[in-house]
Hints:
This protein is mainly alpha-helical. 77% of the residues lie in helices and 0% in strands. The protein is built from 15 helices and no strands. Helix 12 packs antiparallel against helix 14.
Amino acid sequence: MSLLFFIVRRLALLVPTLVGxxxxxxxxxxxxxxxxxxxxxxxxxxxxxxxxxxxxxxxDQPLHIQYARYVTGLLHGDLGESSSTxxxxxxxxxxxxxxxxxxxxxxxxxAVLLGVPMGVLCAVHRDTIIDHFGRVFSVxxxxxxxxxxxxxxxxxxxxxxxxxxxxxxxxxPDVSPPVPITGLYTVDSLVSGNWRAFESSLAHLALxxxxxxxxxxxxxxxxxxxxxxxxxxxxxxxxxxxxGLPRRRVIYGxxxxxxxxxxxxxxxxxxxxxxxxxxxxxxxxxWPGIGNYAVKALTLKDSGPIQSFVLFVALMCVLVNLLVxxxxxxxxxxxxxx
Length: 338
């Protein structure tokens, strides 16, 4: 099977997935209690004005007509208008998306840099104090919800120690944003040489990214530990050690190289979890991303941002899984031909 046909086939599967997600997201917003027309009309609006606003928004039409209008808007790049901000949802998304991507990517990098070595060390030092600590941390990381982890980190590093900034956004109030290049404050400030903004953005990014990283680092470390234990019991690893090859080279070279495909699989799953988990962490730290935007819209029964957030997360998960499959084909060409 050629690589081009493989990509085309996976892209074709993207269409029914997104259609199903759009239907689920559309129906869920209408099953939630509340009235979007009342939100847009305001709390002091009369029943007549609310009914008029409902007619303007098309909420008095059958669901299939509303869904058809919603899909037509999506095909034309129209995600609707937010009742809470009064602006197009697409405009709000474009403004807030860089913050979410910066938080997600930094959390993923932090989870990999900490989770993979932890899993390897636990496997190499099996049934020692290191292994016991790693397993306790893994269980605790999975058991604790991300909002609780975030509150603990805020209490310790901001309230008790005073070494972390207040969880109120991406920059300190007295620091101006860097010149917009990518929308990622840490990258833009570094490229433009704005060291004050770089220091402030990095400090504000530390705790929320660590919170998200802990929630996914635990299962990643457990997966790496289990895979490494299995690889260390294989004949070729035992033979390499028996021939006197350096233990560090065998473990961190030959054995770890065979964990590439399982780690890539875990990263694909982890990225989708991070995109969805952003909503809680962003709310805790006041992070101005699309997750915080969707949570506020949910409390106000603002259907446009909720539907768009669900659809966007699904799209990112599908695209990341497609990227994972492509990396598979590079790491192991046999997967592409199966």
